[in-house]
Design goal:
Elements lengths: L2 H10 L14 H18 L5 H25 L14 E2 L7 E2 L2 H20 L2 H4 L4 H17 L17 H22 L6 E3 L5 E3 L1
Helix pairs in contact: 3-4, 3-6, 4-6, 6-7
């Protein structure tokens, strides 16, 4: 089932979207859901802006991502492509081919990003400047996702015909947003998305 077939199906059967126990969960959808929830929460809590919240969930999100990918490894999910590298792993639940442990690649990447964010967060300037941690998180996590997807077995047949698969294409907007946040911090320009109140605090417009 390709994108358009899926769209038509779920428009006609919207209740199926809620049946997450039947599969369908993905990191991009989860990320979009988290961002939407933060937007709603920050709109209701005027003293806690969107970027302020993003900066504070970035570290646990990176750490959690590492744990999730470790779980994928033990469950033989999201397997890697066949390889002759000495650290190749045989996923006996799938077949007898030595494969890239792509789940561990992502797990290690997430934990390294967690360390980088933690070291950055310890600096007062970065911690007190909204958008620094969020920008780094989005840029690093989804850039690593784009790179490491090349080691994975495509999860949809039509992905084999494209240089970049669906996961990589969906990661690009998150990388661009992350880079945009970093650029905004360095230029102190919010592109009209944020305004300052009478006390000089930045808030969602």
């Amino acid at each position: 089932m390709d994108f358009w077939d899926s769209l038509v199906y779920y428009l006609g059967h919207p209740v199926q979207i809620l049946k997450i126990w039947e599969g369908g969960l993905a990191s991009h959808g989860g990320a979009a859901g988290i961002l939407a929830a933060l937007l709603i929460y920050s709109y209701k809590k005027k003293d806690q802006g969107f970027l302020w919240l993003m900066d504070r969930i970035a570290l646990p999100a990176a750490f959690g991502g590492g744990l999730i990918r470790t779980g994928n490894f033990f469950n033989s999910e999201i397997i890697g492509r066949p390889t002759a590298m000495p650290w190749a792993v045989v996923f006996q639940r799938v077949d007898s081919l030595p494969r890239h442990p792509s789940q561990l690649y992502e797990s290690i990447a997430c934990l390294l990003i967690f360390i980088i964010l933690g070291m950055t967060y310890r600096k007062d300037t970065a911690r007190n400047t909204e958008g620094v941690i969020s920008g780094l998180f989005l840029t690093l996590v989804f850039s690593s996702r784009i790179a490491l997807e090349f080691f994975k077995v495509p999860q949809a047949a039509y992905n084999t015909e494209m240089f970049l698969n669906t996961g990589q294409w969906l990661s690009i907007p998150f990388v661009l947003v992350g880079m945009g946040l970093i650029a905004e911090v360095w230029t102190d320009h919010r592109f009209g998305i944020f305004i300052k109140d009478k006390d000089g605090n930045k808030k969602w417009e």
